Hints:
The chain is α/β, with parallel strands linked by helices. The protein has helices at about 55-60, 65, 70-85, 95-105, 120-125, 130-135, 145-160, 215-225, 250-260, 270-275, and strands at about 10-15, 25-30, 35-45, 85-90, 115-120, 205-210, 230, 240-245, 265-270. The strands form two sheets. The chain has a five-stranded mixed β-sheet with strand order 3-2-1-4-5, with helices on both faces.
Amino acid sequence: xxxxxxxxxxxxxxxxxxxxxxxxxxxxxxxxxxxxxxxxxxxxxxxxxxxxxxxxxxxxxxxxxxxxxxxxxxxxxxxxxxxxxxxxxxxxxxxxxxxxxxxxxxxxxxxxxxxxxxxxxxxxxxxxxxxxxxxxxxxxxxxxxxxxxxxxxxxxxxxxxxxxxxxxxxxxxxxxxxxxxxxxxxxxxxxxxxxxxxxxxxxxxxxxxxxxxxxxxxxxxxxxxxxxxxxxxxxxxxxxxxxxxxxxxxxxxxxxxxxxxxxxxxxxxxxxxxxxxx
Length: 278
């Protein structure tokens, strides 16, 4: 079936509890004859009910909220039935399908193979937040799985109906720096590849440092810059690495996690990763 012929489909969106992508919420939106007819969300108890703080900062789902929730294996048959019998739509299908596969693998279940997958990120090439802005849609509920599923449904409906977003409204707002953290500034922010090893993982890559570390952050920045990194002070779609210490800036981490979900290849590194790479 060609994308333009689609009239009925089901949207799935997953929120994750951990950096290794264990699901904690699933959102579903149902579309019939290119109209959103229903939507719902369900909490999922991740393995050991464990959460990474950075993930909670993004979607505000906490362990106490999922303590009594069903685990993914209890949703498996219902999810499998829907996906195998409907066109499935996702915004950044690579991310959501990976979440789905990891959940199946964790519980030793056969991987689910949807009937057909349409990715609205691949259609538009822009984040959910950008598309909401471009279509004049309220984005305050972003990272609630049901809200994101409904937004994704509308994106495909607009695509099918030939409604185009206003690209002039795309863009990332300036980062507000967290209080109590010494801001990195000065010459270290000026890109300089002189003497750096082109084979190093940081070479010519944008790196953001946030949080509290055992080492002074400016010194860290100088070490990373010596490897060829382009030190930046805010997370954008061009960021390659975020070095996150204790108490990282919540806005920076929220952006990094959001951009990851939208398909941007941002990697979040910790103190031990930094030491190994340097």
